[in-house]
Automatic annotation (TrEMBL):
Residues 26-64 form a coiled coil. The lineage of its organism: Bacteria, Pseudomonadati, Pseudomonadota, Betaproteobacteria, Burkholderiales. The keyword Signal applies. SUPFAM superfamilies: Porins. It comes from the Bacteria. This is Porin. InterPro entries: Porin_dom_sf. Residues 1-20 form the signal peptide. Keywords: Coiled coil, Signal. The keyword Transit peptide does not apply. It comes from Azohydromonas lata.
């Protein structure tokens, strides 16, 4: 009995310190948790106080910006002072202007691309044509004028309109002192779910090169396939909806409705859409050094009494097309840069295949004594492949080869009036460019152009491109 009492006493003596230690650890853990909670609350309070201070500064700046024009008006016109102090003297524009709009309205991003050319050709550019292909009389094809010239320059403005929209304008300054609007559109920024809506005038999203501005091209000119089948570049007035899928691999869909005013269409002056297009693009990375993108596009445009040159053997005979054109485009591009670093060396390989199917009626000798109409159907195609290699910082070399197929046109009742020789236009171009910085570039290009039957046209271009002001990043 005494032995059991002794054993119990020893056990209680040993358990006492253990229990005391556990209680102390529990108290310490509770204190640490409370300390962490206090620190988090302190950080939260400091953050909220900082955020409120910034919001107050923003509101004060907006009020100062909004009051500045009114103060200037009052100083310039003393008679306006009583009205300025009246509560009811609020202009309709001020009542509807969004908060903060004054600061944004006068601070858009502005950029200017200056470009110039020195051109030498072995054949007269005035007689340039792409044999077997009917083009609009105002189509910008060929090497342009000989000698020194101011090439097309670009003036661009862009800014956020509010939390939901942004706007952009790109004006082309042509060598003949004329100005045209290349793009002028508004675009959503907050639709969510990968959706973007654009409305206005813009370059269509079909193909790879078509959405790109001229100063981003790797050669002085666009390929023959674009010149012959899309009038160099297709732009239109309309709406565009794009969707990027929430996947690891790029998957982009786009659909467009347009007026149809540009070649291969023409402004038919009717209600509804004269142009429709759909495209899908996919791409991704392969390891750290490789990336790719590929896509398919379809563009359909309608034309009414569209003048065409280059179909008849005699250029003085005018023809006009009424009907529908459907253009199919397959594009692909692959890029390589060691470990993803393209600053020193990189390589880009790209190519596109275009096919145009035209069906409708053709008027021969429009406005002349032999004017007559008949059926017209043709399938024409073209392709190009080009590679651009940056072999050291600031220096690149590029090679492009291309070919067209005029097809076998069905002129219906006019079959005997057109002479199809089966000639296939082609062209080969070699370029070398040097970029002293990311804002300037000088390019030397040699091309052997066989777009016209007969002797080759050997073309030499020396081009400069300079970028001034804010300019956004370019697409892939």
């Amino acid at each position: 009995m005494q032995q059991r009492i002794l054993t119990a006493a020893v056990a209680m003596a040993m358990a006492g310190p253990v229990a005391a230690q556990s209680a102390a650890q529990s108290t310490t853990s509770a204190n640490e948790l409370q300390s962490l909670r206090d620190e988090i609350q302190t950080l939260r309070n400091a953050y909220e106080a900082r955020l409120q201070a910034l919001e107050q500064r923003l509101q004060a700046a907006e009020r100062a910006t909004a009051q500045a024009p009114a103060a200037a008006t009052t100083a310039a016109d003393p008679a306006a002072a009583p009205a300025a102090s009246g509560v009811a003297s609020v202009s309709p524009g001020a009542a509807t202007a969004p908060a903060g709009g004054g600061a944004n309205a006068f601070n858009p991003a502005v950029s200017l691309i200056l470009s110039g050319l020195a051109t030498r050709t072995s054949r007269d550019p005035a007689g340039y044509r792409i044999s077997g292909f009917g083009l609009s009389p105002d189509a910008e094809v060929g090497p342009g004028t000989r000698g020194l010239s101011l090439a097309e320059s670009e003036l661009a403005f862009s800014a956020s309109i509010d939390p939901y929209w942004r706007g952009a304008l790109h004006a082309a300054l042509h060598p003949d002192d004329s100005v045209s609007v290349e793009e002028a559109f508004v675009e959503t920024t907050a639709l969510g779910s990968g959706l973007t809506l654009k409305a206005g005038r813009f370059f269509s999203n079909v193909g790879y090169l078509n959405p790109q501005h001229a100063h981003t091209w790797d050669f002085v000119d666009n390929p023959l396939a674009y010149q012959a089948l899309l009038g160099t570049q297709y732009g239109d007035d309309g709406v565009q909806l794009r969707w990027i899928a929430p996947t690891d691999q790029l998957l982009e869909f786009s659909a467009e409705l347009g007026r149809g005013r540009s070649f291969p269409g023409s402004d038919v002056g009717a209600n509804g859409a004269g142009m429709r297009s759909v495209s899908v693009h996919t791409g991704g990375d392969i390891g750290d050094s490789h990336s790719w993108r590929a896509g398919l596009s379809v563009l359909q445009a309608s034309a009414r009494e569209q003048p065409l040159t280059g179909l008849a053997a005699d250029d003085s005979i005018a023809t006009a097309f009424t009907g529908r054109t459907r253009v199919y485009i397959a594009d692909a591009v692959w890029k390589w840069a060691p470990e993803g670093n393209a600053t020193r060396t990189n390589f880009k390989l790209q190519g596109e295949v275009l096919q145009a199917r035209r069906s409708g009626s053709l008027v021969y000798d429009l406005g002349g004594p032999a004017e007559s109409a008949g059926d017209y159907r043709v399938t024409q195609s073209g392709w190009y492949v080009q590679g651009i290699y940056q072999f050291m910082p600031r220096w690149r070399v590029g090679l492009r080869t291309e070919r067209l197929d005029a097809g076998s046109p069905n002129y219906g009742a006019h079959a005997g009036l057109f002479d199809g020789s089966g000639f296939q236009p082609k062209k080969h171009s070699l370029m070398l460019d040097y970029s002293p910085s990311e804002f300037s570039r000088v390019r030397l290009q040699f091309a052997r152009d066989l777009a016209r039957e007969g002797a080759a046209d050997n073309q030499i271009f020396l081009q400069y491109q300079m970028s001034l002001g804010a300019h956004g990043a370019h697409g892939y």
